[in-house]
Design brief:
Layout lengths: L2 H5 L3 H21 L7 H28 L5 H25 L10 H21 L4
Helix pairs in contact: 2-3, 3-4, 3-5, 4-5
């Protein structure tokens, strides 16, 4: 293995952990929170878990696409996806559990991060192996 291969961010691993957390969150919402949250809060929880899965699957795909095709945009895409997913899903989880509603103003920033991550992923895939 070269230094570039060993220093590459572990997007597949990060995505797999995120996907596992999304399943845990979904199950927790369906079983432990179903009787404790109002319908709107439960919908927020489900949306947060779903988008956590979307971001996680994106990271898995990104990691697989980047194998043998080094490009700096893969790193930027992964970082944007991770941060965007954390902000988007994290704020929705918080809102579902009763966090101040002002937190909802931050949620779209997470969505923009996720969008940017997927667009950077597309650019990296299009660019091939050009550094």
């Amino acid at each position: 293995m070269t230094n570039a291969e060993t220093s590459r961010p572990p997007w597949v691993s990060v995505g797999a952990v995120g996907a596992a957390l999304a399943i845990v969150a979904g199950a927790f919402g369906a079983h432990a929170l179903a009787d404790r949250l109002d319908p709107r809060s439960l919908t927020l929880w489900e949306t947060a878990a779903r988008y956590l899965m979307y971001g996680s699957l994106g990271l898995i795909g990104l990691g697989l696409a980047a194998v043998g095709r080094p490009h700096r945009l893969y790193g930027a895409a992964g970082l944007a996806l991770v941060l965007g997913t954390i902000v988007f899903s994290g704020t929705l989880f918080g809102l579902a559990l009763g966090a101040p509603r002002i937190l909802g103003a931050v949620t779209p920033l997470g969505g923009l991060g996720m969008i940017a991550g997927f667009l950077l992923f597309a650019l990296a895939a299009r660019a091939g192996t050009i550094g």
